[in-house]
Write a structure and sequence with these properties.
This protein is an alpha+beta fold. The protein has 2 domains: 94 residues, Translation Initiation Factor IF3 (2-Layer Sandwich); 113 residues, Alpha-Beta Plaits (2-Layer Sandwich), CATH 3.30.70.2970. It contains 5 helices and 9 strands. The strands form 2 sheets. Strands 2, 3, 4, 5, 6 and 7 form a 6-stranded antiparallel β-sheet that branches. The longest helix is centred in the first third of the chain and has 38 residues. It is elongated, with a radius of gyration of 39 Å.
Length: 254
């Protein structure tokens, strides 16, 4: 019994030391977590935007014409005559072949028709000639001229050319330069907004920690739409356009 009492008396200092170590370790961990959170930096961000109106400097247009004849040879001769008529029409308007306009290949379709007897019963089909189609396309900087061609083809129709005209499409050849300029202006706009916010809140800006480029939109000028597609709208149906871009900046606060 005496030996057991001695063992109990000799073990309690060790237990006390272990307890103190546990308390100190817990305090150290708590202090470390507190210090970690205190080192987290606060940030401030804003989105800037920029837009510009511009006029397209390139136009594309395409049309197609067709002929019908009883034989393939006759159809080829007729479509060749129509192509020559279209060629002269475009050249008369100052459009250069090879540089600004070109013809597509000729497509041929053999036509058949249903045959019925006197009682209205179908008895089979028979050949009904050939349809030939050919396309012509223009890519030019002469926007006014091509617009007139696309909307006024009455002279071709008067000469027997069955021409179908498609709507012109408009493009801008200096789009990369325009986009870079907009990015610079949108970035400046975002920085100005951040400066205003930080000034009003009494905060001091640190280093830039994040920047994101938003979607690049091209819409018809005065279209009245504020919608933004996920991958960016790209209008080609309007001669006058508006380009818009957004940039988001995020700065660390000191």
């Amino acid at each position: 019994m005496e030996n057991e009492t001695k063992r109990v008396r000799s073990s309690w200092p060790s237990a006390l030391i272990i307890g103190i170590c546990i308390v100190l370790s817990s305090s150290a961990i708590a202090w470390g977590l507190s210090s970690f959170h205190s080192m987290e930096k606060h940030t401030i961000g804003a989105t800037g935007s920029a837009n510009v109106d511009f006029e397209s400097d390139l136009i594309t247009w395409s049309g197609s014409f067709k002929v019908h004849a009883e034989t393939s040879q006759g159809a080829y001769k007729q479509i060749k005559r129509d192509a020559d008529t279209v060629r002269e029409y475009l050249k008369d308007h100052g459009i250069r072949e090879g540089e600004e306009f070109e013809f597509g290949s000729v497509d041929i379709t053999k036509i058949t028709k249903d045959v019925y007897d006197a009682n209205g019963n179908w008895v089979g089909s028979e050949d009904d000639g050939y349809d030939l189609y050919q396309s012509v396309s223009i890519t030019s900087s002469q926007i006014d001229v091509v617009e007139k061609i696309s909307s006024d083809i009455s002279s071709l129709l008067d000469e027997g050319v069955e021409l179908t005209s498609n709507a012109p499409q408009y493009y801008y050849t200096k789009l990369d330069d325009l986009k870079l300029d907009l990015i610079e202006k949108a970035t400046q706009n975002a920085r100005e907004r951040i400066n205003i916010i930080s000034k009003e809140s009494g905060a001091e800006l640190g280093k830039l920690v994040n920047s994101n480029l938003g979607v690049f939109q091209i819409t018809a000028t005065n279209s009245g739409t504020g919608d933004y597609s996920y991958d960016g709208a790209f209008d080609t149906g309007s001669r006058d356009k508006t380009a818009t871009i957004t940039v988001r900046l995020e700065y660390e606060l000191k």
